[in-house]
Structures are given as C-alpha cells and as structure tokens.
Amino acid sequence: MNTSELQKIKQRYNIVGNYDGLNRALDVALQVAQTDLSVLIVGESGVGKEIIPRIIHDNSPRRREKYFAINCGSIPEGTIDSELFGHEKGSFTGAIGESEGYFGIANKGTIFLDEVGELPIATQARLLRVLETGEYIRVGGQEIRKTDVRIVAATNVNMRKAISEGRFREDLYYRLNTIPIQMPPLRDRDNDIILLFRLFAMQMAEKYRIPKVTLTEDAKALLLHYKWPGNVRQLKNITEQISILSKEREINAEQLRKYIPEDQDSTQLATINQPGQHSYESEREILYKILYELRGNVSDLRRDMTSLRKKLDDAHELSNQIAYPQNQFIDNPAPQVPAINHQPSPVASIAQPSAIEAEAEEIRTEPESLNLNDLGRQMVEKALERNGGNRKKAAKELGISDRTLYRRIKQYGLDKK
Fold first, then answer.
1. Which residues contact 254 (CB under 8 A, 6 or more apart)?
2. Is residue 411 within 8 Å of 329, Cβ to Cβ?
3. What is the pLDDT of residues 235-274, one digit of tens each?
4. CA 9, CA 308: separation in Å to the nearest integer?
C-alpha cells in the first residue's frame, strides 16, 4: 500500500500514528478485505483491535450488507448459543417465540467476534461447523440451516496457552487464524503516544469548548517512559481527566504524575529479607512449603493416634487384670446406711468391702494372673513417671479411679520405693 492510500484510511477512521507495526496491520486488513478468509486479530486490551474488522467490512464486497460486532465475553454462557445461532419457540424457559440469531440475521454480511477466547467449548464446536460448512442448527431445533457470513475474530488471550490448558479448540484456532493481524501495544509506538494525546485533548476542547491542554517537554518524556498497561484506552481516559480537572492548561511532569498510576515494575522498592525469613521467588517454592507443612501435620497426627491407641490398649489390659465388675463396685461404693433389724438384701451383701477383697484375693491367686500382674505393675509405674508421681493424673490417664490406683500401688509394693 502506498503512503497516500494509507493516509486516506487513517483520516477516514481517525487513526493517529506512524508506527511500522500499526501501518503493517492496516495494510494486511486492506489486502484481506477483498477475500472471504477468516481473520484473527491479536493484541492487548485497549490497543484498538475493533477498528480492523470495520476496515475489512467497509472495503469488502459485503460492505452493503449487515455488520455485527459481538463481545463474546459479555454474553452469559447459558444464552450465548441462542444469541449466536437462534432458537426455536419453547426450546427453553422464556423462549416465547423464534429467534434468528446473529448468524441468521447477518447472512451475506460480516460478524466480528470480540474476545473469542472466552467462548464456551460447546459453542466453539458450533462455530467450527459454521466456519467449515456454513451450517448450523438453532437451539431446540433439528433443521439444518445455511448462512454465508464473513467472520473476523479478536482476542487478547494467549491462544497457545489456552489450547494447552484445554480452554480453546486447536482446530478452531487454526480455522480462525487463516490471516493473523497483530496490533502493537501503545508502549512500543514511541512518538505516537504524543500524537494521540494531542488528538484526545483537541477532541475534548472542541466538545466542551474549553482551552486545549498541552504538555511540557518533561511531561512528554514521562508519557513516553510509562508502560501503558491499558494502552490507547487508558491514554484517552487520562487525557480526558486532565482536560476537565486540571486548572492549568500547560501540564508539566509533576502535574501529570497526579493522573498517571504508579508503574509497579519501575517504582516498587526491592524487598530486603530479614535474617531468619524466607523468600519465595515462584509459586513452585510456595507450593513446596505448603506440602512440607502438610507433611508435618500428618506426621503429628499419626504420632497422636499412635499414642492414643497405646493408651487405649494399656487401659484395656489393666481393666482385664483388675476384673472390671469388681472395679465398678469399688469406684462407686455403696453409701453407708443406718443399721436395720432385718436381713440385708443380696445387693447390699455384694457391695460389702470384705466380699470384694476376698474375691480380689481369689483372682490374685490364679496362675494366669501372674503375667497380668507384671504388666499392670509396669503400666502403673510408667503412668506415675509420666505424671511426676501425681496419682490423680496417673489414675485419669489409666482410666481408673484414685482408690483403685491406690490399691494397685499397695499391691505392687510401689509405695515402698
């Protein structure tokens, strides 16, 4: 494309700038406009990707037909198929009538799919069929319909990464990417930044009939140094803010800094770690730390469970040794009652200490109880050691009463140590 044709396009669409990457994108758009090939426009948010499909449509044989610009990220997932491909009456709640959908209405025209990387996987399959055969089916319908639509798509998503993560179909990507157009970010366009500021300042002055703001040399240097994460859209917003809010019409660097957010990459101070602190340079190291702490928690839990299991086993062995039915009566002795001139009941007779002592003595004389006595002695000794000789705590740990523990201590001769 020669320079005169390029300037005509810029004037028609109010495009400002002489950056080579911008000129190349406009040249490709004009060349592909005469074909029906699919175009994928790639660039960061705010670089002006939406102007390219308009240029393609206006300079194509379809320029007299309809043109629709659709933001795929703004349509809910549950209704996007209906919006694009239409639906039959009663196909879902609220479908009180039929709908052609964009692909039906835009027949013979052009559809611009902005943020195409946000399309659901199911919708991507439908779109691929339209691109390959021109056929589609309405939501809730069975009839195959035909459409002749030129599709131009745009995205600010890293499509290669989206494909590897399973968020975008690889076959659809290659079908859309027949002709790729790369829109350059504003930070790479050098002096175009100053030209765009002048344009936006002039537009604000004409619209609101106020004096136009200008920049000093140090303010221009600050604009060129800033990285513009929001690109052209951010520059336009800042210019409009300055035009309305600033009392001064000549803006220097100090005044400009009030409107430009801090550049974290260039102004953030480096962090110096204090002794004993850890720094994590990547998510991988943070994950390793979390896994290490989790492993420690699991180890602590395993150790607690082992200790609890041992205590339960010890208590079980001890209860077997000292004959649980007798402990029940010893731990809960019968209350003293006044003497009455009648025969005592069987329950009262059983509860007498003399009978319990006799039965316990009988158990101790059994040959099978010798090993149990040794085991019981060891458990009582360990419990007393762990609790510093505190009998109450030791009895609680063993799961027996203080009185029963006192009898065990006397039985094993531990009170003579």
1. none
2. no
3. 999 999 999 999 999 999 999 999 998 755 543 333 334 4
4. 82
- State how far the Cα of 306 lies from the Cα of 145, in Å rounded to an integer: 70
Which amino acid belongs to residue 325?
A: P
The pTM of the whole model exceeds 0.85: no
pLDDT at 368 over 90: no
Residue 138, SS3?
coil
CA dihedral of residues 180, 181, 185, 190 (deg, nearest 10): 130
Instruction: Give the tokens for residue 7.
Output: 């300037």
CA-CA distance, 167 to 121, in Å (whole number)?
7
- Taking the CB of residue 149, how many other CB atoms lie within 10 A of it? 23
CA distance 105 to 116: 19
pLDDT tens profile 67-78 = 999 999 999 888
Q: Tell me the C-alpha to C-alpha distance, in Å, between residue 278 and each of 140, 247, 290, 292.
A: 58, 49, 13, 14
| Alpha carbon distance 40, 151 (integer Å) | 9
- The SS3 assignment for 295 reads helix
Residues 191/228, Cβ–Cβ less than 8 Å = no
Q: At what angle do helices 20-32 and 51-58 cross, to 10 degrees?
A: 40
pLDDT category at 401 given cuts 50, 70, 90 is confident
CA distance 323 to 360: 8
Checking if the pLDDT of 185 tops 80, the result is yes
